[in-house]
Write a structure and sequence with these properties.
- By secondary structure, this protein is α/β, with parallel strands linked by helices.
- Helix content is about 40%, strand content about 20%.
- The strands form two sheets. Strands 6-7-8-9-11-10 form a six-stranded mixed β-sheet, with helices on both faces.
- Helix 2 runs antiparallel to helix 5.
- The longest helix has 15 residues.
- Bound molecules: guanosine-5'-monophosphate and manganese (II) ion.
Length: about 325
């Protein structure tokens, strides 16, 4: 924390990198830091090698994302990124920048940054980011910054439900209320925002759900054809896996999403002590005990066989 504070305080020209396939945590945490640092008149650019889902437009700065192609920063801060693959095309710039700090809460963090601020027991990076911002300069914290932190906490904790949620999570949320946030409004913005086209995409995936091991394992899949025919994209798959994961008998669920020829993005979800970061780890990915991800290459049915085996192996 101390080193991160020193590096950030001394930097004039920074970039903040969110992970690919950005979620509420990486976006909310990055924006809370962004809105803090621009109050100090620092030059700050936001980078992400994927588009920001439109439901977050209301909290994004007007200037939006930057697109850097060469290293030009005093410091780069990566947010919620557990390994270099999560930086996407910005890994190259990251690699060539002298000072790098990573704020994260993934136990699988590979410690690729020069300085790592890691709280593997936290439900979100946003929780850590709020603590950092208080430590950095609490006078800079305002309502908008707190809204960003809340978005990170509420999304990554599944609405304060996941096992990593602690009294600290709630204490920080309580502090955010003191800054005047409208939690109900923010919750609705990020959770009650399912478009009809997304619903139709989810219907397709759910209608061909497969079950294994007496329904202990569920699998849904998305093909590029589904995105074309429903006018959706890969970011619209979010949340669908929970539909099967919430079935009583299901212990582990898997979403397989076509992301190019013979390339599939895999999501794993589990309950209780079943650690799906091990399943993702088999394929070079990672994440949390109950939510993890990776990429697997090969023909669809072969990929399915391999990911289901990885799930069976931890049952
Ligand atoms: P999701 O299934 O929603 O994409 O991701 C669930 C969790 O797994 C997230 O916390 C995310 O950080 C992690 N995750 C997803 N994909 C990957 C990946 O390709 N590599 C790693 N290391 N983690 C991933
Ligand atoms: Mn996170």
């Amino acid at each position: 924390m101390e080193k991160a504070k020193e590096l950030i305080a001394n930097a004039e020209n920074l970039a903040i990198i969110m992970h690919t396939k950005p979620d509420g945590d990486t976006i909310g945490s990055a924006l809370s830091l962004y809105y803090t640092l621009i109050k100090e008149n620092k030059k700050v650019e936001l980078l992400c090698d994927d588009v920001i889902p439109s439901k977050f437009d209301f909290i994004m700065p007007k200037c939006g994302l930057s697109d850097a192609d060469k290293p030009k920063y005093d410091l780069i801060v990566s947010i919620d990124c557990s390994d270099v693959e999560r930086l996407g095309k910005y890994y190259d710039i990251y690699r060539k920048t002298k000072n790098t700090v990573c704020f994260d809460h993934h136990k699988t963090n590979t410690r690729f940054a020069k300085h790592v601020v890691l709280r593997a027991n936290y439900a979100s990076t946003a929780e850590l980011m709020f603590e950092f911002l208080e430590y950095y300069n609490r006078d800079l914290i305002d309502k908008r910054i707190c809204e960003c932190v809340y978005i990170g906490i509420v999304t990554d904790s599944g609405g304060f439900c996941y096992p990593e949620v602690s009294s600290n999570t709630h204490l920080i949320a309580a502090r955010l209320y003191e800054y005047g946030i409208n939690a109900n409004y923010l919750y609705n913005k990020v959770f009650r925002s399912k478009s009809m086209k997304r619903f139709k995409l989810h219907m397709r995936a759910v209608s061909r759900a497969r079950f294994y091991n007496d329904n202990a394992i569920a699998l849904v899949c998305f093909f590029e054809k589904d995105f074309e025919e429903t006018n959706t994209d890969i970011s619209d798959t979010e949340g669908c896996i929970n539909i099967v994961q919430n079935i009583d008998e299901v212990k582990i669920s898997i979403a397989v999403t076509e992301a190019g020829k013979d390339c599939f993005k895999i999501s794993f979800r589990s309950i209780e002590e079943l650690d799906v970061s091990e399943c993702a780890g088999v394929f070079g990915g990672g994440g949390h005990k109950n939510a993890s991800g990776c990429k697997v290459y090969g023909p669809f049915e072969e990929v399915v066989e391999r990911v289901v085996k990885a799930a069976r192996d931890i049952l």
